[in-house]
Each structure stands twice: as C-alpha cells, then as structure tokens.
Amino acid sequence: MKKKVVSCVLATVLTGCALQAGKPPPAPGSAVLGAGRGAAPYPSTYVIPQSPPTLIRNATVLTGTGARLDNADVLLAGGKIVAVGSKLTGPAGAAVVDATGRWVTPGVIDIHSHLGVYPVPGVQANADGNEATSPTTANVWAEHSVWPQDPGFRTALAGGITTLQILPGSANLFGGRSVVLKNVPSVTVEGMKFPGAAYGLKMACGENPKRVYGADKKQFPSTRMGNMAGYRAQWVEAQEYLRDQQEYQKKLASGAKDAKPPKRDLRLDTLAGALKGEIIVHMHCYRADEMAAVLDMSQEFGYHVAAFHHAAEAYKIADLLAAHDVCAAMWADWWGFKMEAYDGIPENMAFVDAAPGGCAIIHSDSDEGIQRLNQEVAKAMAYGARAGLPVAPERAIRWLTANPAKSLGLLDRVGTLEPGKMADVVVWSGTPFSVYAFADLVFIDGALRYDRAHPAVAPESDFLLGQPATAGLAP
Hints:
The protein folds into 2 domains: 1-17 and 48-106 and 417-475, Urease, subunit C, domain 1 (Roll), CATH 2.30.40; 108-414, Metal-dependent hydrolases (TIM Barrel), CATH 3.20.20. Helix content is 25%, strand content 20%. The chain has helices spanning 4-15, 152-157, 207-213, 224-254, 266-275, 288-301, 318-323, 348-354, 373-386, 393-396, 402-407, and strands spanning 54-62, 68-77, 80-85, 95-98, 103-106, 108-113, 161-166, 174-182, 200-204, 280-285, 305-310, 327-330, 360-362, 425-428, 439-444, 447-451. Helix 7 (318-323) links the parallel strand 11 and strand 12 (327-330). The chain is of the alpha/beta class and 475 residues long. The strands form 2 sheets. Strands 1, 2, 3, 4, 5, 14, 15 and 16 form an 8-stranded mixed beta sheet that branches. An 8-stranded mixed beta sheet has the order 6-7-8-9-10-11-12-13. Helix 4 runs parallel beside helix 6 (288-301). The chain is built from 11 helices and 16 strands.
C-alpha cells in the first residue's frame, strides 16, 4: 500500500486539506439550460479548510488594483483578506510571517490550462482534451476528463498558481465547456471546482478546425469561411432552441395544461447558455482579421466574447478589443510555429495594455509554462520597455491576477488583495518579475498550501506516491 495515509496527515498539518469522501445531494430544481453560476448539475464539493489567522508583515505588496505598498502588511483570517496596510495587528494566536525583503501578490490565475485533461505522463492513454469527432462538440465538458491526480497541479502550485481554467482543446469550432478549479488536492474534480464559478465555452477559429476536418478528410469546414458559416449555423439553431424553451416557460406561467417541454439537447444547452450570458465565451484565435469577424458575429447573435486566447495579432486591433471590453490572453513571445502565429510580436502584451481600457492577460497553454508565468510577464515587460511602453510592476501584476479574474467573471472574489476577497496570496522571495524569484508561500482561501522551505509536506499526487523514479523530488 502506498504511503497515502501518512502523506495526507502531513499535508493536513501544513494546509488543513480535507479530501472529500462524499458529495452533498444536488440542489432541488437545479437549472438544466445553461447550467450557469450556482446551477450546475455537478456541483463543487470544495470546502474551505480551517486555518489560523495569518499576518504577513513588512512586505512590498502589489495589490492588483494598481497600487504598490512598501513595508506593508496583509492580514488573512476566516479564508478572507481582512486588511492590507501598515502596522497591522493580528488576533491572538495568529501565525506571523516576516516578509522583510519579500513581495506579496494575489494568487496567480491561469486562464488557459489543459492540466488534468492532458496530464503527466503525456501519453495517448491520458490525452482527453480534444473530442475531435465533430466540428461542434459543445455537449462535452472538460471536467469529465480532468484527472485530479495530475502531478502538474502541484508543480503549478509551486509557481504561485491558485486558480486555473481548464479548457477543452481547439480541434473544434465549439470545443465544449471549460471548468474553473482551485489548485487544491482532491480525489475528485468536484473537490477542486471553484464554488459558483461560471462555466466557459471554448471556441476556436483559424487553422485548427479547418485542418482537423478539412484537408485530406474532405469534411466541413475546410476554410475560414467554412468556420464562420459553421459558427453561425450553430448560433441560429441555439436561438431557436432558446425561443422554444422560453415559449414553454411562458405557457407554464400562464397555466396552460398542454405545455410540453422541448426535447433536451446537451449541445444546445451550452450554446443557449452562452447566448443568455450564463456561460462565458473564450475563443482561441490568432489573426486580427478573424478576431474582428468574430466580434461582428457576437454582435449579430447578441453574446459577448470574454477573451481571445493566444491572440498573436491582438496588437493590431488593441483599440477594437478595448472598445468591445474583450481581453486578450497571450504568450510573452511564442510566434512562428504555424502561419497564423507568424506575425506575432513580443511587444504584443504591452500594446494591448497601452490601449485605453485594454485588458492584457498572460496564459500558459502548457504544463511547463504554467510554472513560471511570473517570468513570462517579466519578459513581456522588458519587450514593452524596449518599444517605449514601460509597464510598472503594480500594473503588470494585473496581467497575472485581476485581468484573468475579470475574464472569468470572478473579479468580485479573487484577483486583488482587498478586504472581503478570498485570501489567495503568494509570498515571493523577491520581485516576482525576475528569473531569480520563487514562490516561497502560497495561500488559498487563507490556508497554507505550499511552503518552499518544507516541500516534502506539500500536497502530492497520489499517482506519484511510492513511485521509485520520483523519490525525493520536489518542485
């Protein structure tokens, strides 16, 4: 038998983790259509663990609101941020962290991850991120592929990641629903689900869908105009489905005895939920012209695109994105690996951020890159400064925290260090925008989930326990 019991006891001492043995029954009358915020049929079972109050003292604090506070304190209690300021006093029994010379930020949020659906080991048997059997698979949900034992969750934690959106892949025009997770150990994905977070709808434009279904397969779509026609046909069908649902509800409300519910369709549940604004649209798209066409389409059908992901040419339409209140989730300097990425530039993030109302986000799309998103932002800052667009640390931190929280519809709960918000906090060894910086301490809802000085007792994947090849390894 693996050393699972011992490991859990040790992890509990450090983090207060509690693996969920059972699930509460679903709430009666849970919504079917859209399954938006708080109405999912697969509800979160994540429970905030009990933890002592914590006072972090004498740090350089980047609040995520645009402020930098020197020699400042942050008080955590009851899973929330209680106060941020100078010379704070903690309650009796509070743990005190001397952060002199260190920096404190909100927890890092990765808006584009495939951890759990493309887990380590990266073998075909574990490849569960793309349901590449139809151009439209809006009926699939990423959470039903997530493997909570993916060792990548722990290595991401060591990089300061506290929240992440797990997306289906980009083989499809409509790839399915995403799920937002807290980066906490659990034996079930429900034990990781961010309570009340809205689902996302993953869409993809450009080369991927036309390559997967066109080319030698001679299936639809095989062109970019085919991609657009495919989206529009599905949205028309979703509008009709939504109208049928609304007509049925009107008949029920009027007391009609002959009211018959429309036949349920899981694919159209998701698309109708996006039209209603209950499900947040995230779109894989590289080229500026395609992003502009998608924005026109969103106006045609009355939905909102929260973010374009990858967005290699976002700099060309930064003003247009800002005008539509759309974020761009980008890499620092990935480019040229396919034609639609060829015109990417390393100053991309700085140009998007510089547009009035611009919303720039760093993302990983990588189980390796997720471990150092802070360094990716540092690179983007350097590229911006070289182009005459310097970005201060107190602004750049928003690319890692507040802006992804906004695009996930969670800015009222995470992404900044403000009283009343979830106590997702990272204590860095120095300025986070350095190759020499490490996440020393990572708190999620006020509970210490990672301590670089004591890696042996951090949460560990059950899959790795007892594996001789991993003995003694720690992020």
